[in-house]
Amino acid sequence: MLAPAGFIAPSATGQPAQFMQEAAPTEPTDSNHDEPSPDLLRRDTSACPFRFAPPPPVDSSEVPTPGATSPAPLPVPDIPAGGTAMSECDVIEGTSFKTPEEVTASSWIVFDVKTGDVLAAKDPHGRYRPASVIKVLLALVALEELDLKKSVRATYEDAAIEGSRVGIVEGVEYSVETLLTGLLLNSGNDCGHALSRMLGGMDATVEKVNAKAAQLGATDTRIFNPTGLDAPGQMTSAFDMALFFRAAFSNPTYLNLSGLQLAKIPGNKELVVDDFDIANDNQLLSSGFEGALGGKTGFTDDARHTFAGVAERNGRRLGTILLDTTVHEAPRPWEQAAGLLESGFDTPRETSIASLDTQAKGDETPRIPFFGTDKNTDPSGPMQTENSWPAIGIGVGIAVVVCLAAVITVAAGKRRR
């Protein structure tokens, strides 16, 4: 099924998203904000209100620049990736999986990293904003294209970037490995900006992360800022994020970096810049959750809290993604993730309601199959899908990168994790 040209997905209230900027509550980021009504914090997804586009924004970060327009929503395949079961928008679970009552995220998924089995999900293909969990794509591209030992001298633009920063200093040289460490442990937008320069600049990096998303089978993802700052048309889904983190946690280098509890960011004696230590901000690790391997945190006012977590027990490696959740009248995102992972480990092996390897139908975008630890697939070439129609999905995002480059850093005043 295609989205009509110029279609703006209706919000849960039935109003076009672009006219609903004040409808959703803003997540407080400090004690000076009034606590929003709990009734406004839980979204009813049963009628699939976010099939085409994310919930209405609550600030001006997605207002196009003068003379520009927001890109049309991505098309929705006839049959979604994962199969027909993944078209449901409420909780989908097998008889053995028990969804914890405290999970309030609008969208989530629990999956087996090795086999691709989906154990349970909620609105898995609903379109939501990723916030900083999308940094996984930037990391994957950097790991593919850059030598870990290669260094780059930090610029003022790197150090002064908006949002969460590790604290790299202008004039100091940092290795790719150090920048990736800061990106994954502390969600450093400064590290992400430096890596983007090494990858050819922001425009080139945006093209590369979108191409990587398409290569991994994504149908709901379009990125205009690879650090996760909100931008017009930027979106993803829990299912797509599962594809990305499955690939990431099958990469030994990513696995090692994501699981670090502490790391050192080097300084420069000549510039009188001291070394300093950083700690992983993923509390799934620091909490002592059994088998925790790492993951990623995320937050913007529009995306609300997002989270990815992966753990392994007895050779079974499970992951979970949460999108669009809050910390009001609910546990922290990592605690919700911990509950979902516990339910996953309590579910018998080879119990599945869908598979990450099942491609969408009604989408002609070439897909490259996943080559993970438990798969015996033929890597000779890209995989094609059936029932093709003009590819205006991920390609739309890449095609409009140039004209939207000016808006990818407009989310002023937001925190990132």
Characteristic terms for this protein:
membrane; 7-stranded antiparallel beta sheet; alpha+beta; cell shape; Beta-lactamase; 11 helices; disordered C terminus; signal; peptidoglycan synthesis
Summarize this, please?
This protein is α+β, with helices and mostly antiparallel strands and 417 residues long. Helices cover 23% and strands 14% of the residues.
Q: Which secondary structure elements does this structure contain, and how are they paired or packed?
A:
Elements: E1 91-93, E2 107-112, E3 117-122, H1 135-145, E4 151-153, H2 156-159, E5 173-175, H3 176-186, H4 189-198, H5 202-215, H6 238-248, H7 252-258, E6 262-265, E7 276-279, H8 283-286, E8 292-300, E9 304-313, E10 316-325, H9 333-346, E11 354-355, H10 394-399, H11 401-404
Antiparallel strand pairs: 1-3, 2-3, 2-10, 3-11, 4-5, 6-7, 8-9, 9-10
Helix pairs in contact: 1-3, 1-5, 1-6, 3-4
Q: What structural class results from the helix and strand content?
A: alpha+beta
> What's the average pLDDT?
82
Which outline best applies? Answer: globular
Radius of gyration: 20 Å
The name of the CATH superfamily of the domain at 63-134 and 218-264 and 276-407 reads DD-peptidase/beta-lactamase superfamily
Taking the alpha carbons of the first and last residues, their distance comes to: 35 Å
- How many DSSP E strands? 11
CATH topology of the domain at 63-134 and 218-264 and 276-407: Beta-lactamase
Task: Determine the number of helices (DSSP H or I, runs of at least 4 residues).
Answer: 11
Q: Tell me the name of the CATH class of the domain at 63-134 and 218-264 and 276-407.
A: Alpha Beta
Examine the secondary-structure arrangement and name the CATH architecture of the domain at 63-134 and 218-264 and 276-407.
Answer: 3-Layer(aba) Sandwich
* Uncertain segments: 1-39, 366-415
Write down the secondary-structure element order. EEEHEHEHHHHHEEHEEEHEHH
The major beta sheet can be summarized as: 7 strands, antiparallel
Relative strand content? 5-15%
